[in-house]
Design brief:
15 helices
Amino acid sequence: MNVDQITTPINVPSHAALLYSPYSFGNKAVAQNRFFKSAMSEVLAKQGEHLPTEHHYTVYRRWAAGGTGIIMSGNVMIDGNALGEPGNVVLEDDTHLDSFKAWVAAVKEGNPEALFWMQINHPGKQSPKFLTPEPVAPSAIPLGQGLESNFVKPRELSGDEVRGIINRFATTARLAKEAGFDGVQIHGAHGYLVSQFLSPHHNRREDEWGGSAENRRRFALAIYRAIREAVGEAFPIAIKMNSADFQKGGFGGEEAFELIEALSEEGIDLIEISGGNYESPAMTGARQSTVEREAYFLDFASQARARTKVPIAVTGGFRSVAAMEGALASDATDFIGIARPLTLDPELPKNAAESTDYAVNVGQPGTGFRSLDMMFMIPITYYETQIRRIANGKDPNPNMSAWRTVWDNVIALGGAAFKKRRG
């Protein structure tokens, strides 16, 4: 299908003609608009099973029906023994592939032209100790910033283990294609394993996978090559990467642009730009001046544009249709990455087409007790609770109290709700 053949369920509004224009990935895929649902951890899989459920199907069917052009799954883990948090989905073999096919079918039922891509991930050392008593990482460097008591010091991966993980990424991507997903995304941001390899702080290896910037990005490039071999040339492969870790001695600056150039030369199909990690979680906030402008990482994207012709998605901070359209008009990005706003308005693309003043206020939910907010990770779990409402066939509740989030997490996760699972 090419751009001329696509039929959109939304009438293109004059106030946002770019936002509602289709985008062609050559002969691989066509996105019906520039809305890009960024990955959010749904925490909806049954503990012990780690498979997509009817709850996943309900949520994603509604997002598709709401008009989002590209829908990214929450992070799907490549290894059942390496979970980022309880409720993760895992795809490591074809034993339960039918449940993933049903996930795709739900999206296509909501909108046959929506593109559904799977984000695939390995947490590395960002796996809480109640889930992973012996996490692995590029080097045996523990998480800091007060996270030491909840995350075990990792074991350094052997060379053979590194190659085994690369193969696991390829296997999961191949299975995603078999299940009917329209593309995959490598999670290379937010301090997970790929991000750990890129970081000079976390990666202090002295072999081919560490040391120089070229060696540290070898892991990400090897994953891309293995996936490409597994899925063929006509299947879209994206990556989510940090503009910076926002951590002393971390990844960022010129190295980030060099990674973009290297991935572009390899043939990556889309680069999503975000930032931060568990120790410095920029993905959940930004300076007030940046918040007011909405797009957290747009300056970096505008510089990246000079280094690549690969389409870019910028995620973080978008709230109004005016800012989204303005970002596209600036030519700094090709897609508008949105996450939390879609938990409050699953029909955001359709609703934004109706008004030049459309905006979503995600607010700053809290119980009024900072320690409790930190224990239950309210800035994240508040939106997980909204996802859970949608999964149960309800509408989101933008006026919901943060206390409801506390209660909901206790009911949904049991004892795990009281255990630290993120920074």
